[in-house]
Input
Amino acid sequence: MNPTIELLKSHRSIRQFTDRKIPHELLVELIRAGQAAATSNHVQAYTVIHVKEPANREKIADLAGGQSYVATASDFLVFCADMKRPTEAAERSGANVIRGMTEQLVVASVDAALMAQNVVIAAESEGLGICYIGGIRNNPQAISDLLHLPEHVYPVFGLCLGYPAADPDVKPRLPVEAILKEDYYTDDSELVAAFDDAMQSYYGERRGGNKDSNWSKNLTPLFSSKLRAHMREFLTKRGFEMK
Output
């Protein structure tokens, strides 16, 4: 495989970072690489907040569930879905804009994710480590208030960036046969069962690992409770009415 594919297949989440700082010029280039990602209709419905203030980093680490590496990574970014900028631009051009459509929420969320993944690939190509922080959606209103986010903008996830101080194993993924289907959706329960066995072995054998679990068991909290049930009301209040 070529180096780019090998890089993508070697991704790990890094949660321990050295004290070495990312040069500002490199950080800017990573953001430019992010902007090169595909974007629906060239809307570019995202804004990235570079959180530099240490006190704010500490607050976000706490609000995200006590994830200390939010504060200790060289840099921390918050990727926001932003429909404020494009709708206002269309309005200034004379359009009678309609706000709050569900598709606008989808477009902005997807745009932010695509941009972030470009940033991640660029960062890892430079020897940096990353960790996505979905935990900022634990307290999205507090995060929004802290970052002064206006209406029609919401924080999708955070991203820790820094030079790795750890070398974790690459976590296995589902077999390609389970997720790549020909023409029609087909049952893949046998493949999932085999993957559960593989994950059970991975957790038992990985460095420092003594976890007795598998993929299916790890999904239990996501589907046995109303995970982040506050998100619908929060998004509606921010102008994403899902009409």
Observations:
- The first strand starts at residue 46 and ends at 51.
- The beta strands are 46-51, 75-82, 129-133, 153-162.
- The chain has two domains: 3-168, 172-225.
- The mean pLDDT is 95.
